[in-house]
Amino acid sequence: MSINFLGSYSGIDQSTIDQLIAVEKRPLILLSEKKTNMETQKNAWNDVRTRLTNLFDKIKALQNSETFSSKMATGGESATLTVSKNTPEGTYDVSVTQLATRGSVVGGMISAAAGDSTKELGLTGKFSINPDAHESGNVIEVTATDTVRTISEKINAISNESGVRSAIIDNRLVLSNVETGDTAISISDVEGTTLSGLGLSTMELPENGGAEVIAGKNALFSVNGVSVERTSNNVSDVIEYTTINLTKEHEAGQSDSIVVSKDISKVEEAVKGFVDQYNSTMDFISEKLKAGTPGEEASRGTLAGDSSLIRLQSTLRSMVTSSIANENTGIGDISQLGVSTVDKFGQLSFDASKLTEALNNDPLMVENFFSSENAEGNEIGFVSRINGYIDSFSSSTGIIKGKTDSFDRSLKDINKQVESFNLRMERKEAYYVNMFAKLDTALMQAESQMGWLTSQIASMAPTNSK
């Protein structure tokens, strides 16, 4: 067992050594600050890439033909239209005489259940629901332990095959067609007289405990005077590329007038989305490039003075507002569509009325301004020009990727330097501890020897006696 006398004689203890090490660790503080600064810059560039990607996504909507070919249907209460880009424009007068309904069989009261859907009925037998062509499918087997609930569950288990679903309402079994239309529900006993015990016999009158059969109806309506009958209230085979949705029957002589026209709001939303994201991106870049106040480091932008970011800012600003050489459109620059610069920092404003006017005059001209192809089949226009430049920064092989990779290499090198430096400091501390411990030991031995020598000299001196 070793005893540490560090500081006992020399006065140099662990706190003194810690102070010496702290002085020698000053270069480590500089490395740490350098690492923090690099990580901050790397994160800032990643944020720039995120905003450029968002800008890329926003502007891509202006390259999508569906943005410009979108249609909308206005008007209609008892009937509405779900339109597509191919729906013919025009006015459609829809009059609903009758809505499609589901056929159903409302069972009578089940006396064996005594008002409890979980009570065993003690019935046995088999019955079929909408049997197949061979009358051998869709059979429900009833056992003595079955309850109203389990029988309803058995019916629902084969609803995909039979086209019929079951519900328990007021202790009665109610069967309904899954689909609407004038389609009857066929139920019959296969073995025994189970249907009578379940109140589902269509051979008995309702007042005698039999089932009430409610016939389903087809939808009856007209479109621009053409009478139509269908089994569903959602009809997609009358007007091309369009679904008619029937929701309410009209009174005699009434109809809904529904107008199908171009939906220019999709283009407006896309342009506004681009402008808003562009302004947000440019604000962020300006913040990162901010020079700040001299002497106030915190006010300086993370990427202040970065030439690549300065070039990105200035190039985007000029690209958005400059003219485009495009033989497929007469629109020279985006200001003719209501987008213009409002200040020296490149912020954009959007006047939707100018875009609406241009779309009403010639929608194809507007679409071609944003995106079209030249004679060689190459993509040209506002979108491809902006996106091509954004891609040079944000792609997997772009400028930002190169910068972040460079930061990663530098950070890796700094981590190695820190690790090596810390190892040297550990060794230096061990050296100091060992050196000063030996000093204390030497001082202790010297003190002991001095005491022995003093006692020897004292013993050699003459002794005075009375």
CATH class of the domain at 104-214 reads: Alpha Beta
CATH architecture verdict of the domain at 104-214: 2-Layer Sandwich
Q: Look at the helices and sheets and give the structural class.
A: alpha+beta
State the helix count. Answer: 12
- Beta percentage is 15-25%
Question: How confident overall, as mean pLDDT?
Answer: 88
Residues in helices, as a percent range: 40-55%
Shape: flat
Largest sheet at a glance? 5 strands, antiparallel
Strand arrangement across the biggest beta sheet: 1-15-3-11-12
**Termini gap:** 52 Å
Return residue spans where pLDDT drops below 50 for at least 5 consecutive residues. Answer: none
Strand element count = 19
Q: Report the C-alpha radius of gyration, rounded.
A: 44 Å
CATH topology of the domain at 104-214: Alpha-Beta Plaits
Q: Can you describe this structure?
A:
Among the domains are: 71-100 and 218-262, no CATH class; 104-214, Alpha-Beta Plaits (2-Layer Sandwich), CATH 3.30.70. The longest helix is centred in the C-terminal third of the chain and has 62 residues, at 399-460. With 466 residues, it is an alpha+beta fold. The chain has 12 helices and 19 strands. 24% of the residues are buried. The strands form 6 sheets. The chain has a 5-stranded antiparallel β-sheet with strand order 1-15-3-11-12, with no helix packed on it.
